[in-house]
Amino acid sequence: MTSDLGLFGPGSVSWRLHSEPILLLGGFRALYLQALHPLVMAGLAQNSDYREDAWGRLNRTTEYVATVIWGTTEQAEAAGRRIRRVHERLRGIDPVSGDFFRIDDPHLLRWVHVTEVESFLTTATRAGVVLAPEEVDRYYAEQREAARLVGIDPLTVPASAAEVEEYYQGIRSELRLTRDSAAAALFMARPPLPYGLGFTPVRLAIGGVAALSVSLLPAWARRLYGLPGLPTTDLSAGAWARALRGALAMLPVRYRNGPYREAALARAASAASTTH
Question: Per the database record, which ranges form the ER-bound oxygenase mpaB/mpaB'/Rubber oxygenase catalytic domain (predicted)?
């Protein structure tokens, strides 16, 4: 068995944070945030089959993140190469100017990256995961490796909570709700469900997850969606997120861990045994 512990390893904040199943909720939050950038949303709408294959896309995205966090170095690098090959041949059309733009424009990729990692971290901490300020900053710094994999210069990526806040302040003038982003937001709240599940309580659960994801957005993002940015929303969202984390903690270990994490933990145990 290879002892390659991948890009992060057992001492990293990334391994600690991504052991939390609540990060799936963070992924939904990131999608709602990402949709507020008009070019990112236009590129997705023009190049993606997310409406026809919503669950397949979710599975592929989840597997990619798991590979980057828990996979070996080669698995993570290979996953990054696949993403870069796909992105480099895709183009979008700016719905306002009519100009073409590259899907792998670093400015757009950086928005997707920052919103993803900030959503993971914010959702986890709002759900009760305790991280010291220096651990928060270390997570952002570690995740520069994930940014590198998709073709972003790591030195241009925020590497601390203060830098993330500064980044958001600088990009907010570009953000707005468009027809594409509104349609995507509604779609995420009511996606087509397989196996007839749309006629079961699963439909209500999906709607609840969507509502909680939106409630966890920054107040300024909620206002862009035409929703209240009140502090009471933040308080109730945090309470619901903590309750959901508690419920997920009762799932069997095999469902909480997943195959990539199980393999990573086995490699870490093997590496530790050879050093003693």
Answer: 15-245
CB atoms within 10 A of CB 112: 20
Residue 254 CA to residue 251 CA, distance in Å, equals: 8
**pLDDT bracket for residue 275 (50, 70, 90):** low
Q: How far is the C-alpha of 136 from the C-alpha of 126, rounded, in Å?
A: 13
First and final C-alpha spacing in the chain: 17
Contact predicate 32/90, CB 8 Å: no
**CA neighbor of 121 nearest in space, from 41, 29, 40:** 29
Q: What is the pLDDT of residues 186-240, one digit of tens each?
A: 998 888 877 666 667 777 888 889 999 999 999 999 999 998 777 767 788 999 9
Both tokens assigned to 139: 């997570």
Tell me the CA distances in angstroms from 98 to 92, 95, 146, 215, 228, one per residue in order.
9, 6, 31, 34, 33
* 3-state SS, residue 100: strand
179-189 and 23-34 helices, crossing angle to 10°: 160
What does DSSP say about strands 100-102 and 91-93: parallel, antiparallel, or unpaired?
A: antiparallel
Which helix (H) or strand (E) segment holds residue 92: the answer is strand 91-93
Structure tokens at 203: 């439909």
Q: Do residues 22 and 124 make contact, with C-beta atoms less than 8 angstroms apart?
A: yes
| Gap between the Cα atoms of 35 and 135, Å rounded | 28
**Tens-place pLDDT, residues 239-257:** 999 999 999 988 888 778 8
What pTM, to 2 d.p., does this model score? 0.93
Distance (Å, rounded) from C-alpha 163 to C-alpha 144?
13
